[in-house]
Amino acid sequence: MQVVDRIALLRKELDAARAAGRVVGLVPTMGYLHEGRASLVRRAAAECKVVAVTVFVNPLQFGAGEDLEGYPRDLERDTALAAGAGAGIVFTPPVEEMYPEPVATAVHVAGVSEGMEGDSRPSHFDGVATVVAKLFAIAGPCRAYFGEKDFQQLVVVRRMARDLSFPVEVIGCATVREPDGLALSSRNVYLGPDERRAAAVLHRALVRGAALVEGGERGRDTVLRRIVATIAGEPLAELDYAEVVAADDLRPVDPLRGDVRLLVAARIGKARLIDNVGVSC
Amino acid sequence: MQVVDRIALLRKELDAARAAGRVVGLVPTMGYLHEGRASLVRRAAAECKVVAVTVFVNPLQFGAGEDLEGYPRDLERDTALAAGAGAGIVFTPPVEEMYPEPVATAVHVAGVSEGMEGDSRPSHFDGVATVVAKLFAIAGPCRAYFGEKDFQQLVVVRRMARDLSFPVEVIGCATVREPDGLALSSRNVYLGPDERRAAAVLHRALVRGAALVEGGERGRDTVLRRIVATIAGEPLAELDYAEVVAADDLRPVDPLRGDVRLLVAARIGKARLIDNVGVSC
Question: What domains are defined for chain B?
Answer without folding.
Answer: 2-173 (3.40.50.620), 186-275 (3.30.1300.10)
